[in-house]
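Sample pair:
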Amino acid sequence: MSAEMPEQRPQQERQSERRPLMVRVQYRRTIVRLAAQILDLSCHGLRLAGMERLRVGECVWITLPGLPPRQAKVVWVDRFEAGCAFVEPLHQAVFDAIVAGHMH
């Protein structure tokens, strides 16, 4: 039996506030664009759920609402969810605007 074990999620303290969201986005790995959903967001990263399994260390380009694509590095994977750290953090005002625009 060779069941894949999920990569462990980091247990360290977060660099910035994390907010739960349900935002549909697109991300790109190499030349392929894929649909996904942001489950939570902070200035320094996000939790992404999609139909494709990402790999730890992989770089992706995520298109957030109203912004050009942003590069992020996959830091953990659990089945079809992945924690990604932005290469360049979001400005606090940009983060606040995204959260305000997608609160339910």
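Residues 92-101 form the longest helix (10 residues).
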